[in-house]
């Protein structure tokens, strides 16, 4: 686990993008997230790790209010993006989600053409004034998704006809097309082979230039490779949060240590 | 029939070539199961073949009509004489008989017959001839070809429903008439023709099965289906989308869901009596009107459409909804841009199957006065198509089947053939639409 790259990486303190205080999430009576407080920095990749069922996805989905779509789910506490409470009754979750993009565990392109997949978000948010504008946005997004060269000749082909890794990069392109400020990724590589995974990881590192990226991952190697900050969740609690290098080399909490050394999980 | 056993094999395993007892047993079971399956399909097909042959055998005669086809000349002189008489049509009938006798003699066929026999065969031909001549006086003096529909008993004799042995002399047909029919057939005067009137015509009185047609009730059914389509599709789809995509899952929606499922199982006659009470007695809508029939059938079709629409909405993977919400689409945008197009084939199929069901439904029409109504006329215009009393295909078939004259029996079967053709067409459309809308990516 002693990857030299981690230690070399300079981690200067940056602005806080997302600030969560005392967040509790209940699914009916199931208390899934307990007292989580965390500050997520801008232009940083933050990894959420932890055994399965510990609430990583749940907490991630609080950040763009995707939990609103689950009837039994109840969120309390305070989550602020750029110091604005996103659970304020005046906040429209639809508007929020345009600002906080999400990439899901399973690649889920729309059953439409590659072009339409990327163009959908800008279209509904009115980001393009004309067709040429939209073409620009699509090209730029597909380039950011590191998939432009592979699909530029078949933009009208169905997005679902791509390979798994390409589909996931298309989904990333679709997410960045709406110009979000935060990008949430829920185990984006769990359905992919090692080569596709490496491509996505490279991509995440580039996305860090412009976004605050939060990535849930099962793989500790992945967390170590791509993230600057790591949060370890266990049974709904945020056990430890800090510099990725510190968490992996010198964890404070014994639970963190047993997880990264493979004793729980 | 799964033999999952965790106990270690008692005997050492045989080679791969020799099948062991267990495998043999399993293979035999599979073979037996396939045989059952083939038997079941065979029985089904047998019934289908039986059904279709009996429908076609009994119903096809309704599409042919025996006619007496005779060409003769009426002079101006004859016309004037006849018009001068008291019993004018009687005179024309005499002319007709004379022509018939002449043509039979020409071919060397001698049969004695009188005016009564002619009336039994073709009703009263004098009237038809007279009205034709009055409408076309310029044809006087030239040979005119008359095609007169023969009585249904003649049809019956020619297609074997009535035989010399089974015939009982009555005022409808007598044994001596059969000789005349044979002679006319030899002379090629009596023959079969396609009965367009059966498809385009309107219903006749109870004593004239030959003139009965399904046309008016096809129109009645058409207007009913319009009502059903334009009410049940939007209501059904809107209700399903709300229930499936927007409604919170709580006790109320559970209750509604259970009730919709129950509604689908309510016998159709219940909807009929509801229609009678609500639409006719309470709302004062006209009896026997396709509008009322359509409203009743809408009630019946709604649960079918709602259930199939909800099933096809539920079959759309949730990841598509997440994807749409994830890029900042609203709930409604996600439903209308992504979910609904994917559910479309299922919705359309469900709707057409619901419509087809409604098209063949008879019982509710019984109670709102469509069964038994003699649809003698086409509606006058588009709007009156909804409100004028009319019959509908299944109601017309039921009416014919319950009439005493056996001539109506084959009309009923013929009506069933037309109804089935409509249903087969609708189902074919459903298949085509499903193919067309289905996204294969
Ligand atoms: N839609 C849901 N409805 C009810 N309970 C849920 C739902 N999603 C997750 N949970 C529960 O919340 C807890 C955390 O789940 P999750 O956030 O998916 O874990 P992780 O992503 O870390 O594997 C689990 O106990 C799970 O059973
Ligand atoms: Mg998860």
Compact overview of the structure:
The complex is a heterodimer of chains A (265) and B (441). Chain A is an alpha/beta fold and 265 residues long.
Q: Which descriptors would you attach to this protein?
A:
A: 265 residues, alpha/beta, Rossmann fold, six-stranded mixed beta sheet, four-stranded antiparallel beta sheet, 25% strand, disordered N terminus, B: mainly alpha, 2 domains, binds magnesium ion
Explain this structure to me?
The complex is a heterodimer of chains A (265) and B (441). With 265 residues, chain A is of the alpha/beta class. Chain A has a single domain, classed as Rossmann fold (3-Layer(aba) Sandwich). In chain A, 37% of the residues lie in helices and 25% in strands. Chain A is built from 11 helices and 10 strands. Chain A has a 6-stranded mixed β-sheet with strand order 6-7-8-3-9-10, sandwiched between helices. In chain A, strands 2-1-4-5 form a 4-stranded antiparallel β-sheet, with helices on one face. In chain A, a hairpin with a 2-residue loop joins β4 and β5 (84-85). In chain A, α4 runs parallel beside α7 and α7 (164-177) runs parallel beside α8 (194-207). The model of chain A is unreliable at 1-11 (pLDDT under 50). Chain B is mainly alpha-helical. Chain B has 2 domains: 65-193, no CATH class; 215-437, Orthogonal Bundle (MetI-like fold), CATH 1.10.3720.10. Chain B has helices at 21-59, 76-84, 88-106, 115-122, 125-135, 152-158, 175-186, 196-200, 215-246, 251-264, 268-282, 290-314, 318-326, 331-359, 363-367, 384-387, 393-401, 407-437; strands at residues 64-73, 143-149, 190-194. Chain B has a 3-stranded antiparallel β-sheet. Chain B is elongated. The model of chain B has no long low-confidence stretch (mean pLDDT 86). Classes of the chains: A alpha/beta (265), B mainly alpha (441). Chain A binds chain B through residues 64, 66, 69, 71, 94-99, 101-104, 106, 108-111, 120-121, 124-125, 158, 160-161, 171, 174-175, 177-178, and chain B through 248-249, 317, 319-330, 333, 337-338, 342, 439, 441. The structure holds adenosine-5'-diphosphate and magnesium ion. Adenosine-5'-diphosphate is lined by residues 27, 30, 32, 50, 52-58, 70, 72 of chain A. Magnesium ion binds next to α2 of chain A.
């Amino acid at each position: 686990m002693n990857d030299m790259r981690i230690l070399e990486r300079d981690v200067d303190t940056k602005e806080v993008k997302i600030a969560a205080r005392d967040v509790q999430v209940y699914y009916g009576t199931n208390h899934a997230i307990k007292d989580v407080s965390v500050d997520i920095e801008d232009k940083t990749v933050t990894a959420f790790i932890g055994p399965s069922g510990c609430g990583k996805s749940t907490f991630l989905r609080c950040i763009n209010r995707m939990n609103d779509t689950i009837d039994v789910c109840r969120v309390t506490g305070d989550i602020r993006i750029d110091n604005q409470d996103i659970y304020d009754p005046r906040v429209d979750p639809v508007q929020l989600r345009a600002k906080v993009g999400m990439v899901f565990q399973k690649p889920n392109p729309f059953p439409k053409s590659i072009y339409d997949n990327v163009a959908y978000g800008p279209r509904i948010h009115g980001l393009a004034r004309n067709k040429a504008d939209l073409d620009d946005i699509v090209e730029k997004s597909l380039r950011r998704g590191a998939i432009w060269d592979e699909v530029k000749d078949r933009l009208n082909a169905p997005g679902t006809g791509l390979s798994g890794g390409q589909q996931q990069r298309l989904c990333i392109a679709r997410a960045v097309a709406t110009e979000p400020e935060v990008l949430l990724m829920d185990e984006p590589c769990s359905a992919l082979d090692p080569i596709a995974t490496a491509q996505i990881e490279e991509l995440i590192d580039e996305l860090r230039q412009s976004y605050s990226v939060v990535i849930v991952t099962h793989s500790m190697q992945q967390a170590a490779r791509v993230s600057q900050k790591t949060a370890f969740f266990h049974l709904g609690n945020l056990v430890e949060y800090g510099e990725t290098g510190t968490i992996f080399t010198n964890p404070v909490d014994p639970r963190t240590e047993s997880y990264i050394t493979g004793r729980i999980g | 029939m799964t033999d999952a056993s965790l106990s270690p094999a008692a005997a050492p395993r045989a080679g791969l070539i020799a099948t062991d007892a267990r495998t043999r047993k399993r293979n035999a079971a599979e073979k037996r199961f396939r045989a059952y399956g083939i038997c079941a399909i065979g029985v089904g097909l047998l019934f289908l073949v039986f059904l279709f042959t009996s429908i076609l055998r009994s119903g096809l005669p309704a599409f042919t009509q025996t006619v007496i086809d005779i060409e003769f000349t009426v002079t101006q002189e004859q016309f004037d004489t006849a018009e001068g008489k008291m019993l004018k049509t009687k005179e024309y009938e005499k002319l007709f008989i004379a022509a018939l006798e002449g043509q039979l003699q020409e071919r060397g066929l001698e049969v004695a017959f009188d005016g009564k026999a002619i009336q039994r065969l073709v009703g009263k031909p004098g009237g038809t001839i007279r009205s034709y001549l009055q409408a076309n006086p310029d044809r006087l003096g030239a040979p005119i070809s008359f095609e007169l529909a023969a009585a249904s008993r003649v049809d019956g004799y020619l297609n074997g429903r009535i035989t010399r042995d089974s015939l009982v002399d009555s005022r409808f047909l007598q044994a001596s008439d059969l000789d005349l029919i044979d002679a006319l057939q030899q002379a090629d005067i009596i023959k079969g023709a396609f009965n367009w009137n059966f498809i385009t015509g309107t219903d006749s009185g109870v004593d004239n099965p030959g003139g009965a047609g399904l046309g008016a009730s096809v129109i009645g059914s058409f207007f009913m289906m319009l009502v059903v389509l334009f009410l049940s599709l939007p209501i059904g789809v809107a209700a399903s989308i709300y229930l499936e995509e927007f409604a919170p899952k709580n006790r109320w929606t559970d209750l509604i869901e259970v009730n919709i499922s129950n509604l689908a199982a309510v016998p159709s006659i219940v909807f009929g009596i509801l229609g009678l009470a609500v639409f006719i007695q309470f709302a004062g809508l006209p009896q026997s009107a396709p509008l009322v029939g359509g409203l009743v059938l809408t009630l019946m079709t709604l649960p079918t459409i709602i259930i199939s629409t909800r099933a096809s909405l539920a079959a759309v993977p949730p990841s598509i909804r997440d994807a749409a919400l994830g890029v900042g689409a609203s709930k409604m945008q996600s439903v209308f841009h992504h979910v609904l197009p994917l559910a479309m084939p299922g919705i359309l199929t469900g709707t057409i199957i619901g419509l087809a069901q409604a098209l063949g439904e008879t019982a509710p029409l019984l109670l709102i006065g469509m069964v038994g109504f003699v649809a003698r006329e086409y509606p006058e215009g588009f709007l009156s198509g909804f409100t004028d009393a009319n019959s509908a295909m299944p109601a017309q078939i039921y009416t014919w089947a319950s009439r005493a004259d056996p001539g109506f029996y084959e009309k009923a079967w013929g009506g069933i053939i037309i109804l089935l053709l409509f249903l087969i067409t609708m189902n074919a459309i459903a298949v085509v639409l499903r193919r067309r809308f289905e996204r294969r990516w």
